[in-house]
Amino acid sequence: MNGVISWFRDSGNWHGDYGVPVLFGQHVLLTVTSVVLAGLLGFPLALWLGHRHRGGVLAINITNIGRAVPIVALLSLFSLSILGSGYLGPYGRSGLSTLVTLALFALPPIVTSTYNAMVEVDADVVEAARGMGMAELGVLRRVELPLAAPLIISGLRLAVVQVWATATIAALVAGPGLGNIITRGYANNQTAEVVSGSLIVALCALLMEIGFLGLQRLVDPRRRSRVGAMR
Q1: Helices in 10-122 by DSSP H: which ranges?
Q2: Does the N-terminal or the C-terminal CB of the chain have fewer CB atoms within 10 Å?
Q3: With contact defined as beta carbons under 8 Å apart, do 55 and 49 qualify?
Q4: At 122, is the pLDDT very low, low, confident or very high (cuts 50, 70, 90)?
Q5: Is 0.85 surpassed by the pTM of this model?
Q6: Could you state, in order of their start, the residue ranges of all structural domains in the chain?
C-alpha cells in the first residue's frame, strides 16, 4: 500500500502523454464510442422487435455470440484481420479493431434488456392506448418507452460498466487508455503501478454504477407517481 500511495503522489504520473488525465480521456473516448456504436445498432432493433413481440429470441441469441468468444481472442483476431492494426485517429493503434470488439461486447446487455423491457410493459396499458386511437409510433414513444425506460437504463448501465472495465485490453495491442498503466506495471515488474491502475479503473466503474442507478430511479414513471402521490 505504501507503494500505491507513493505512485498516486508522484506528479510524474499525472502529467505528459502517458499521465493519468490523458489516459483517462482516451479511456472515456473508447468507452463512449463503443457503447454509442452498439446502441445505434442494438436499440432500434430491440425496440421494434419488443414492440412487435417477435424475433426477440433470435436477436438475443445472435448478439450473445459475442459473449461466447473470449474478448482478448476476439481483439487479437480483429487486429490481424481486414480491420487491421493501423492507427485510427484518437483511438490509436488497432483503433478500429478495438472499437468493433468493445461494441460487440456491449451489444448483448443492450439488446436483451431493451427487448425484455418492451415485452414486459403491461399489455392492458398498451391496448388502452391503441383503443384511444393512438398510432403505433405514438404507443411506442409515449407509452411503452417511458414504462420500459428503467430496465433499458439497466442494460445500458451494464454495457457501459462492462466496456469501461474491458477497454483496458486496448493496451494489449498498443492502443490508448488506462490499460497502459497496468501493462506498463507488469512490464516493469512494478506491482504498485499495476494496483494503482486497477484501482483507478475500478473506482470509476463504481462511480458509473452509482450514477446509472440514480438515473434508473429518476426515469421510473411509477416511482415518480408514488412520490407525487406522497407529496
Answers
A1: 20-52, 56-63, 65-68, 71-79, 95-119
A2: C
A3: yes
A4: confident
A5: yes
A6: 2-230
